[in-house]
Amino acid sequence: MFKKFNTDYDRKEFCRLRKLVKVQIRTSFNTYISDAQNSLVNNPKAFWSFIRSRKGDSRIPGIMHLADETYSTPQDIVNGFKNYFSTFYRNPGDASSSPVSCTNAPCIHLPQITDIMVNEALAKLKDKQTAGYDEIPCFLVKDCRPILISPLCTIFNLALRSQHFPSIWSIAKICPIHKTGKQSDIANYRPISILCAFSKVFEMVLYDFIYPLVRNYISPHQHGFMRHRSTTTNLACFTNYACHILDNHGQVDVIYTDFQKAFDTIDHSIIINKLDSIGFSQSLLQLFTSYLSHRSQYVTYNDFTSDLYVASSGVPQGSNLGPLLFLIFINDIGAAISNHFLLFADDLKLYYSISSINDCLFLQDRINAIFSWCIANNLHLNIKKCKVISFTRRRNPVLYDYTLNAVSLNRVVSTTDLGVVFDNELRFAEHVRQVSSSATKTLGFLIRNSKNFTNLHTMFSLYYSLVRPKLEYCCLIWYPIYDVHIKAVEGIQRKFLKYMSFRVDGVYPARGSSQELLLERFSFESLSKRRISNSIKFLHGIITNHVDCPSLLESLNISVPAGTSRFPKTFLNPIPKTNILSKSPSFIMSRNFNIYCRHADINFSPLSEILKFV
């Protein structure tokens, strides 16, 4: 009206209403921010939903592409995902031609399921709103636990007796999850299965019974999906080996492999034969055959769904039994390559100390053995993504042209292994640079999006959850020993503490302010001290069996003093010839314990008492 008639009354009314709207917007926004930060205590899920919304739109774009095809409507997009995901699967093989490793394993059979087993599985169910094909959300199943225990127990036992997995539980809802690259490219997504809640409970019951029975069968070189093992144990085993070789001026060649859609292409007949070979009873084999066969799924997006399509191979990702079945499937690859290899689920690396061309030929034989195993097990390697790196500080390393199926492997000077950047001299300078850069960006996001927060506790929680994990992930592997790297990592925390001082005082601390005073003011520990504590925690876990890694336990040398010493040492470390050995995880753990906790008893003292010495 004001622009149309341009009268004084309309102008004043417009100004009044504009001011009122601005006040209401500001009030509503402040209420929104206040509710968001207060929800950290009352409703953490809502708080982290707020944080994810501030980090950017993670939804699937409205226009998607796959090769030369373009999909612009929700229905076309889900069908595009369906067409792409359905290409992952392979036709089932002939069970009679599948390789079987015969063993004298005892028969594994599942006794009758009890109410206690069902109750324990229901208690583990995550309290989420996600629902599978039956549209029954997990939180509802968990909340109704008392009345569901008995009928579920009856249904589960009926499934065992009939050796048939309920068909409705074999239908999975698929959510596309972005991996890397352009978000508009369908090829950059992977399928995650959302199963029926009752199916999850049944799988938990089966898993809890079967895992302890097959755990000792699975190779100690496998660190993925194994209790008390992790990416840290995997990388620590390799780093220990490589550091000792390089400290003696040697060379270690490592082959990194890449299986093509491994979880989606497992041949069902082969995995059933492998279950048979380790002692699964016929009734359990029939049940697992029913579980794997005739699985179907559909893609969902924006309340649109695709048609059902059959998953004729593989194990459902997002299930409880799927990872365990995969570990059993890939386990006998160790028999083909004997030793000097490590697995994290389907991430396989094999390595060997190289002193002559004969060592290279030996490693090449192991590569050929892997390829033969893949052919026998109907699994394919993505040769373009397989690579070789030679770890050494020699001036004239032995550089051999390794091949896979007559194709030369790509030789690199650095690679990312389970989230840690390894350079060919094990200096980890590039990893420190990438970690510092990533943490700085995340800290900037935190500062930009929390300027309206008034609760300092919320700020600390954001730092603990978003920034500090980046600075401490697998820090035992890339443990910085040079001041330039220590300061680069410590500087990220210093920026945060200076910002918190600004939020409290209204001004930033003066340039060159004492780091110790900043740490003391906010009751923080330096990252260096936290790394020391974490290394001792990890060492304590190895000694007390909370970390299941025989290789790391074997690498620790207990000191047996010849006489009384003023400075007793619990562990005996070798004398390094270079600084490389001092970077090995076992050396770091032992050294830190000897320096800071020499008066503690690692075998009998509680961890809390040991850490008081740090």
Describe the overall structure.
InterPro entries: RT_dom. Residues 158-404 form the Reverse transcriptase domain. The radius of gyration is 28 Å and the shape is globular. Strands 3, 4, 6, 7 and 8 form a five-stranded mixed sheet that branches. The termini are far apart. Helix 19 (527-543) crosses helix 21 (585-596). It has helices at 2-5, 8-42, 44-55, 74-85, 115-124, 138-143, 145-162, 197-214, 231-247, 268-277, 282-292, 321-330, 333-337, 357-376, 429-449, 456-472, 483-505, 515-521, 527-543, 550-554, 585-596, 607-611; strands at residues 64-66, 69-71, 171-178, 189-194, 251-256, 295-301, 304-305, 309-311, 341-344, 347-353, 387-392, 403-404, 407-408, 410-411, 414-417, 420-423. With 614 residues, the chain is of the alpha+beta class. Helices cover 48% and strands 11% of the residues. It folds into five domains: 1-27, no CATH class; 69-228 and 263-328, no CATH class; 235-260 and 339-423; 429-524; 530-611, no CATH class.
